Each structure stands twice: as C-alpha cells, then as structure tokens.
Amino acid sequence: MVKIPNVKLANGVLMPQFGLGVYKVEEGKEVENVVRNAIQLGYRLIDTASFYDNEEGVGRAIEQSGIHREELFITTKVWNDDHGYEQTIAAFKKSLKKLHLSYIDLYLIHWPMPKKYKDTWRALEYLYEEGLVKAIGVSNFHEHHLEEIKKDANIMPMVNQVELHPQLSQQPLREYCWSNNIQVEAWAPIARGELSKEPQFVTLSEKYNKTVSQIILRWHIQNQVIVIPKTTKLKRLEENQAIFDFALSDEDMSVIDEYNKNKRMGKNPDDL
C-alpha cells in the first residue's frame, strides 16, 4: 500500500497531501464504489461538498470501509445559498448528518460570496471552537478575500482550495498563502485532461515512463500542494496514486512552472 505524505496545518493537524475529489460523482452506487475502492487502495483524504449532492453516499462508503474513523480525513463545504452565521451552522449540521459522522476533519467556505463570507467565517470559527471540526478553511479565495478575513478573524483559514494546474499555476496566491501559514489545495489539478497531448508534457511522460497525469500530479506534490484528482475508475485511482516512486528534476519542474497561461476552467471568484 502506498504511503501518502502529510502536510501540517497551522494548528498542528496532519492532512494527507493526496486524496480523492468527488465533484460530479453520482450519488448512490457510483460514489459509494469509488470511495470504498479508494480507501481500500490507501486513500485517506476524501473531499466532498454539500453542492455535490453525494455526502450520503460518501458516508455510507466510509461506514462500509472498515477503516477507523480517525484514520480518514474528510472534507466538506458550505454552499453559496447557506452563507451567514446561523445558516452556516445549520448547513454544517445537515452535512454532518448526511455523512453519518460525529465530526468533520476540514470544513471549507466553498466560494467567497460578496458581503456574506465574513459572517460565514465566524460560524466556522464557532464550529472549530466547539470541536465539531478539526480544521477550517476556504475555497476559491483570492488574496484580497483572505485579507478581509484577516481583519476580524480570531483564527485564520488553514487551507485554501483553489483551481490550480499548469495552465493556472497561481504562483502569487500560493506564495501569499504560505507566507500566512495557509496550506494550498488544488482542484482540477490535471486540468481535466486538457494537457494530455501537449508536447512538453508528452516529452516528460516519455522521459519518466509515467502518464501525463502522473507527471502533473507529481509537479503538485513537489510544489507542496495538496491534490484531490477526481475519477470513478479503479485503474485511474491506482494510476493517480502511483506518483511517489519518482521525482521530477528541478529543470523539469521549471518547464512545467513556465507553462502557466493564467487560463481558468472554472469561474473567477471575483465574478460571483
């Protein structure tokens, strides 16, 4: 079984650097099967959200896995419609019930809804102080959103999960986060397969005898970024995880670093 490294969050909690994202994985058998298979392969970080509408299936898979709860790291998120102090606490309780868990490892604000996310952050602080979550953070926050949080926060976000891949390397945001003791987590880490035929990546794939996806995931790992590639296929679960038996050279890391095109696949958080 592959040994997955951890990163240490600002409060000392250890979070796996590699895991499974379940965005657009269908509720029911599909999400149950992929989460159960992932856990059997050694995945310990599972990332879902209320918006994904599959928390119940994730919860069932966790129950069926036979793995002690303390060995798993479960993330979920509060959706845009549930921003606000009381609304966020109510949304959290719904997620907790759907997941059949007594606590969440990491609870995130999914998007920085204008004029609302600071009240939502106060609710996350409350949930953390009550011991209902082990760590709290945000998703899709720019530097200026984090600066707004900083003005009033008792606790700063411990994680910022953002769109991050070679086409959108987010270098300034990454540096800001790390300078503020915020771990960076990538969604769409392999750019949804868009780079599979790009010459630079094909060349690296041939050099290391790894797939383009594995090359990109390894680039994230060496950049100290947390990654949660999504798949529903057992073969891809195995392939995505097989990135800890090689290392990219500094020169090849630079090749990927320089590919950045500031090209988004999702929304710019400022356009909400």
Automatic annotation (TrEMBL):
Keyword NADP on entry: yes
PROSITE patterns for the chain: ALDOKETO_REDUCTASE_1, ALDOKETO_REDUCTASE_2, ALDOKETO_REDUCTASE_3
Catalytic residue list: 52 (proton donor)
GO molecular function: oxidoreductase activity, acting on the CH-OH group of donors, NAD or NADP as acceptor
Keyword NADP in record: yes
InterPro entries xref list: AKR (IPR020471), Aldo/ket_reductase_CS (IPR018170), NAD(P)_OxRdtase_dom_sf (IPR036812), NADP_OxRdtase_dom (IPR023210)
Entry similarity comment: Belongs to the aldo/keto reductase family.
Protein name in UniProt: Aldo/keto reductase
Domain NADP-dependent oxidoreductase: 29-260
UniProt organism field: Cytobacillus kochii
Top-level taxonomic group: Bacteria
Residues flagged as site, Lowers pKa of active site Tyr: 77
Binding site for substrate: 110
Membrane-spanning parts: none
UniProt KW keywords: NADP, Oxidoreductase
Pfam family membership, one: Aldo_ket_red
